[in-house]
Amino acid sequence: MFAGATAPMYGAETVDSVEFFFPQGKSVLLPEFRSNMESIGRVDSILHDSTATAVRVNSLRITGAASPEGPVDLNNRLSDRRAERIAETFPGLNGFRGADFSTSFLGRDWSGLRDLVTADSRVPYRREVLALLDEIITSDEARGGEREADHNLGRLKALRGGVPYSYLYTNLFPDLRYSRVYIDYTRVPRADLSLTPPQAEVHPPYTTIGLTYIALIPTEQENTRRNFYMSLKTNLLYDALALPTVGAEFYVGRNISVGADWTYGWWSRNSSHRFWRAYGGDLFARWWFGRKAHEKPLTGHHLGIYAGITTYDFEFGGKGRMGGLPGGTLWDRCMKMAGVEYGYSLPVARRLNIDFTVGIGYFGGKVMKYEPEGDGYLWKSTNHIQWFGPTKAEVSLVWLIGAGNCNRKGGEK
């Protein structure tokens, strides 16, 4: 974790580096996280190696990085905040006379990942992973930086069916969520007070650690929250049939989402015995895949399973059909369905998608046929139906909710 030497040789320039790690998706420096407390002590020891010496900081560089998962722009912002967070945490370092202070961010640290893969012989399909990382690094350097259109993350996820990616995500990605402090300094006799750095004034919520101090309370509320992706939607096909629908979907991570839909329309004209009634809903789980899905959650191709219940009462032209028997609980009188689905969610505006979904499976239950007679209804027959085939069709307008859950201009992410 540490590089360089710290021997107290008068007049000798030394470059030392210290790493601080962050939880996934966060830029708040937590002293108790991983080896951060050791790193804090390391910075302090660099500045206080001997009572007979003082430190003159010649230059101070802070670099922030992020692991590859997530959109490019998001990781760029996250790594930038991590670098800035260290600068805010140890502002006393910038007070050293003659110090050249700078911060920078790496975004997705592909070079760091390559170093980790090189050092880990357990990485599945290691040679292929290294070849892909070399191609990514070379291409990014040639283009002047990574772009979302490069699809680097999607290519890594797709390699060998995602087996290497699963290992990298669990075992190596945590080491890429860091900020690294590079301190170029010279040790001089403490008697030369002109080279002694000024003490930084301390204000809450900080506590002193030698010539440095560390923030104990986060100042950016957004950094304490995980990324959140959800959507609200309505099925335009059912809406056109005067059967309003509403649905909600939540992204739970690893390209998986769960959600529910509900339909309710209860229209009637008793004077002419016309009914147009239906209500019910379903629960579903989806796996998102493809290039768009890797770029941003809740976008692109998806496969899923679903199960639901519904009941209806349609009457026109003197004849009616009721799906599910009247009376009892909804479960007693409903029709039941279950199946598998495929769909594609297409970005059309910054916060809007159009989702096309079809499902195939089972639909069954009791259907009662009747005819209106006077003020009542004449029962004709009760049939038990079982249908295997298309059972779901959606053209849904989807409203994206959550920080970062938005499309770029023109609908492209």
Write the layout of secondary structure elements.
Elements: E1 13-21, H1 36-47, E2 53-66, H2 72-89, E3 100-108, H3 110-119, H4 126-143, H5 152-158, H6 163-171, E4 178-189, E5 206-209, E6 212-215, E7 230-235, H7 236-240, E8 245-253, E9 256-269, E10 274-289, H8 291-295, E11 300-316, E12 319-323, H9 330-333, E13 335-349, E14 352-373, E15 376-401
Helix pairs in contact: 3-4
Give a verbal description of the structure.
With 413 residues, the protein is of the alpha+beta class. The protein contains nine helices and 15 strands. The chain has helices at residues 36-47, 72-89, 110-119, 126-143, 152-158, 163-171, 236-240, 291-295, 330-333, and strands at residues 13-21, 53-66, 100-108, 178-189, 206-209, 212-215, 230-235, 245-253, 256-269, 274-289, 300-316, 319-323, 335-349, 352-373, 376-401. The strands form three sheets. Strands 7, 8, 9, 10, 11, 12, 13, 14 and 15 form a nine-stranded antiparallel sheet that branches. A four-stranded mixed sheet has the order 1-4-2-3. A hairpin with a 2-residue loop joins β8 and β9. The longest helix has 18 residues, at 72-89.
Summarize this entry quickly:
By secondary structure, the protein is an alpha+beta fold.
Which features does this protein show?
413 residues; alpha+beta; 9-stranded antiparallel beta sheet; 4-stranded mixed beta sheet; 15 strands; disordered N terminus
Counting DSSP E segments of at least 2 residues, the number of strands comes to 15
C-alpha termini separation: 36 Å
- The percent range for helix content is 10-25%
Structural class: alpha+beta
The largest β sheet comes out as: 9 strands, antiparallel
The parts where pLDDT drops under 50 for at least 5 residues are 1-10, 193-225
Q: Tell me what portion of residues adopts beta-strand conformation.
A: 35-45%
Number of H/I helices:
9
What is the approximate shape?
elongated
Rg computed from alpha carbons, rounded to a whole number of angstroms = 31 Å
